[in-house]
Structure formats: structure tokens, C-alpha cells
Amino acid sequence: MRDDSSNYSLYEDDDLVKAFQLNADIRAFEEIYKRFWFKLYNAALKRTTSRQEAEELIQTIFERLWANRQKAVINNVGAYLAVSLRNILNDFQRRKITAEKFRQSLHTPPVSNSTEEDVNRDLLLKAIDSTLKELPEKTRTVFLLSRFENKSVREIAGNLDLTEKAVEYHITKAIKLLRQRLKGYLPFFF
User: Fold this and answer.
1) Which residue, of 66, 76, 128, 139, is most buried by count of CB atoms within 10 Å of its CB?
2) Which residues form the RNA polymerase sigma factor 70 region 4 type domain (predicted)?
3) Do the beta carbons of residue 135 and residue 174 sit within 8 Å?
């Protein structure tokens, strides 16, 4: 490792990793961020539908890198970040598919398409929509992020600047109200 700590751009990747892992050196971490952000972002942008999604995924990678700096085994930071990107993109795609399947299940008519089932489904969808509108704004936002966008408690907490316990509270509150309001509809569908 070089002695001149004022110019991290001259450091090799391995030296930067050592500096930020062993000494929690934020400047070394920032240099890693500068070196790899754009390449990771471009790769993420190819597999996501928006710049915002790509930026959020890359931000998550670097947040995790910093949070796990002491226990991560990093032999090659470029390869480590590439694998992190692959994993986070796979998770992202799975969450997206799950959310889409859920949305489709709410709006797709059942295989045995009877008039009574159609009416019950419409009533259920209206009741869900009406119940969600009754929720306080923050509770509704947390619930929609959790159930419709398939975000984790940790992600929601980070995005909304809440504690994980607060996010869990809002989800529980929403589910409790939905169960109360939708009690009469559930036998038709489950």
C-alpha cells in the first residue's frame, strides 16, 4: 500500500479494499465507488426497465459492500461487485415476476368462469381497494411496497427512512384491517 493517502486514485484495487476493510477508510471506499459505479450501472440498466431501478440496485450493492466490509472475502473487487450485481439482479427479477403474478391473479378471471365468481371477484377487488384507501398514507405506502412491489422490510425501511420495526408495524396494521374488512369474501376464493 502506498504511503500517500491523499491520492487514492493511484492505489491498486487490492490496496483500496484493504484500506476500507481494515480501517473503514471512507475515502478508499469512495474511490472504489468511483471506479466501478458507471460500469455496474450500465450493466444493471440493460436488465432493468428504468434508470431509477438501476441506480437503486447499484446503491444497494455499495450499501451492502460497506455494511459487510469486515466479513466479506474480497480477492478481486471487480469480480466481487460483478457477482453482487448478478445476485441482486436475479433477486430483482424474481421479485418483479412474483409481483406481476400477484397483480395478474387479482385481475385474471378464474378458469371456471361463472357469473357468481365474477361478481364475487369484482366485489372483493372493490373491497380491497376501498380498504386500502382507509389506511393512513404511510401504512398504505408501506403495505403497497411490501405486497405489490415485493420490497423487503429492510428496503422499505431504507427507502422511507423508517426503522424495520416501524415497517413491520405498518404491514401488520394493514393486514389486520384487510382481514377484518374482507372476512366475508375469503370463503369464496380460498
Assistant:
1) 139
2) 126-178
3) yes
